[in-house]
Amino acid sequence: MAFNSLTYFLFLPLIWIVYQWAPDRLRWLLLLAASLGFYAMLKAPYLLVVLCLAAGVTFTVGLRLGSCSDETGRKRLLWVGVGANLLVLVSLKYLPALFFSFNPSLFIFNGFANFSPITFHALITIGISYYVFQAISYLADIYLEIIEPEPHFGHLFLSLAFFPKLLQGPIERSGDLLPQLKKPYVFDYDMARSGMLLFAWGLFKKVVVADRLALFVNTVYGDVHAYTGLPLILATYFYALQIYFDFSGYTDMALGSARLFNINLTRNFNAPYLATSVADFWRRWHISFSRWILDYIFKPLQMSWRGWGLAGTAVALLVTFLVSGIWHGASWGFVVWGGLHGIYLASSVYYKSWQKKIHKVLGIEKTRLLKVWQTILTFNLVSFAWIFFRANSLADALYVVRHLVEGIGRVRAMLFAHGTTELIVALLMLAVPLLVKTLAVTSKRLDMPFCLPIPLRWAVYCLLVISLSLFSVDSGRAFLYFQF
Amino acid sequence: MKKLLCKLLIFAIIVFVLDRGISALLQRGLDRYYGLDKQASVLCIGHSHTMLGIDGTRLEQGLGVPVAKYAVNGANTIDRLAMIRHYLGSRPGAVKLVIYDVDDHTFTSSGLSSNSYRLFFPYLDNPDIARFLKESAGSWDELLSRRIVTLLRYNSVTLNLALRGTLRRYDNFKTGQVDIPALQNEIKANQRPPITIDQKMIDSFRETVSFVRENNGQLVLLYIPTVDLVNNVDKVRHEQVMDIFKNYAAQDKGITVLDYNPSFSHRYELFSDPIHLNRNGQHAVTDKALIDLKKILLTEKSERCKVKGK
To answer: What is the pLDDT along chain A (484 residues), one digit of tens a residue?
Structure first.
């Protein structure tokens, strides 16, 4: 069930209303049932069994980890739990893709003839990686004695499977989420109101902005060989914006849905394209994922290679981001994307100190000009890496890179492929979130639009809903990060 | 809790009123663009070829009768059957002549947009269109959501047409010329869509012809010209398709085939792309159509007089 479907628009209020009148002791059960029902709507019922099994193993190993005092035994238990979860991830995410590449007919004989390879692959892995990541972090946090093991299986299962963040994150730490799920529920007007607005805003970012940008991106990236020069650059920039609005739109909807139940999920984006370095970008983009790979991949690697000095940190960064690329999918495009980010970060380990000295000598340290330049440079580096992420194959990506600076090409064909109206609406709608962000930053009011006078606030609400109805592209388009 | 529910209720009422009000305005514009706001004697039905190839206002002034141009981008024969039912169904006996644009791809089911039905959502309240949409819609929520929120029925294409209708801007804005070398390369690379003749399309075309004739309308099958290089790609299929149209005309006096390719398809300056006319092309084709249609209407009038005289 996608957040931008009519089914979810009926499902969410229904669960919310029942939740209001449910007794406190049964509320976790209601949310768990709703979460499993939400997941069951993906039409892959065996996945529910997988979720239950993974939760069962994580719960059992967690309890044993908590009671075990022997360090070797604890380490062994941790690896058993992590291994079991990784087994789920590998067998569901990578093995089918591998088998399919060797023998496509296998899936047709097994009754999956109605699914294309991509759909089938997305269906069987949807949400699994986020689920597994949370289970691993739960076990690691018990091992590191950051949290105590959860004694209630239902609460732990709910913390892993809570429906707003089940499919695309944010990747929640049990230490943050479990206490909120166990707290007695009291209706909070402000939370409910802000949740609804955040949900609508996320929906706007997805169906009005991201899906509209996708029209232009798909025109070019669907047939890259028909274009050279400027259209390739524009499509790449548009994709950078599309993936941001798509994913952050989803996150806003997840956060908004959770707020209705008085639960605060982790903020996953913080104006990532205003980052002044690639390292800063990763502090602002997919924050829960960045934190996860930093804590559970990078830090252990850096610790074990600390004897190598700067080289140890650089190699740890490179390996971490290569793993991140492979996590996104078993394709060379993702590996190169991860590798590029790894190279950006690893090289910064060496040039950072030099960079500071040069800025000091030139007297441009902490100037606005430097900040603008660094933001533009970072955006371009990140956008360049997106080419490998978006292109249909590595060959297509390399074609794009080779032909990026070859004149203006068929820029009219790209921009007007869907008519002048579509282009005008796209630019206007793209301006809305940029304007909102600028207003929020310049006015320094974080409580926008709640600080506005009632008539103005209600006008904003109405405009948002009317824009959603009139300018949404197509409610059937899936979220980009579903496939991961 | 009560406060929130009350506010939500008030908000829902405001949004409902805004939704119905704005969509009523848009529908009025769309009706005007398609000519659904009048009792037309001549109805032009087709897809983008008609949209860009026929100047409805010029035709109306020249013929001296109300003309409606109900043309929807990518509309295939199934869509057009629904369009004709929609128009004639709500105005029985008004339409005397139906101009139906045809081309090599009239019976090709894969050549046109597979989701062109979405352009008919604004007319979901019409029973004929509702039946058609029910058969075409991809999922249950596609129709239900548009029944609840009427503004969802519009997309950028229908929104554009509604605004053009409101502003009475019916002209062809395309002034550029077709890129012949690019087309030649495309043909050389075998990139033109193949012509196919699909039974489903033939059946709906047959049904359309019967429906128009049962409603006492004359039918003109008008081949709005396309660039000759395109027409020559598959001459055999081209002739096969033309034969189907000619057979209909041979069997029924009320059906006429007008093929404007011989007069215009070599005049590349009249095309904005290989299959669409630019503004000058639209004027040239409409002027020629005016002469032919006048003759047809005159014959039809004298036939009617003869019948009355008997």
So the answer is: 788 888 899 999 999 999 998 998 899 999 999 999 988 887 667 778 888 999 999 999 999 998 988 889 999 999 999 999 999 888 877 766 666 555 545 444 343 344 444 444 444 566 788 889 999 999 999 999 999 999 999 999 999 999 999 888 799 988 899 999 999 999 999 999 999 999 999 999 999 999 999 999 999 999 899 899 999 999 999 999 999 999 999 999 999 999 999 999 999 999 999 999 999 999 999 999 999 999 999 999 999 988 888 889 999 999 999 999 988 877 889 999 999 999 999 999 888 888 888 888 888 888 889 999 999 999 999 999 999 999 999 999 999 999 998 888 888 888 888 878 889 999 999 999 988 888 877 777 766 777 778 888 899 999 999 999 999 886 455 555 555 5
Nearest to A269 by CA among A122, A433, A431: A433
Question: What is the set of domains in chain B, with CATH numbers?
Answer: 28-309 (3.40.50.1110)
- CB-closest option in A420, A425, A469 to B149: A469
State which residue of chain A sits closest to B146, comparing Cα positions: A469
Q: How many residues does chain B have?
A: 310
Distance in Å, alpha carbon of B280 to nearest chain A alpha carbon: 20
Q: Residue B138: closest CA among chain A residues belongs to which residue?
A: A476
Which stretches does DSSP call E strand in A403-453? none
Q: At what angle do helices A153-161 and A128-143 cross, to 10 degrees?
A: 130
Q: What are the residue ranges spanned by the domains of chain A?
A: 6-185, 196-226+241-262+410-471, 272-402
Q: What predicted TM-score, i.e. pTM, was given to this entire model?
A: 0.86
Touching A: B residues 81-140, CB under 8 Å: 138-139
- DSSP assigned state of B109: S
Nearest CB neighbour to A419, from listed B1, B11, B160 = B160
Partners of B273 in beta bridges? B276
Cβ-Cβ contacts under 8 Å, B141 against chain A: 5-7, 475
What's the CA gap between A386 and A70, in Å, rounded? 46
Q: Looking at chain B from residue 159 to 198, which residues have their Cβ under 8 Å from any Cβ of chain A?
A: 159-160
Residues 6+ apart with CB under 8 A from A239: A213, A217, A221, A383, A386, A390
What residues of chain A lie within 8 A of the CB of B181, using their CB?
A: none
B290 touches chain A (CB under 8 A): no
How many Å lie between the alpha carbon of A420 and the closest alpha carbon of chain B? Answer: 9
Establish if B18 touches chain A: CB-CB under 8 angstroms.
yes
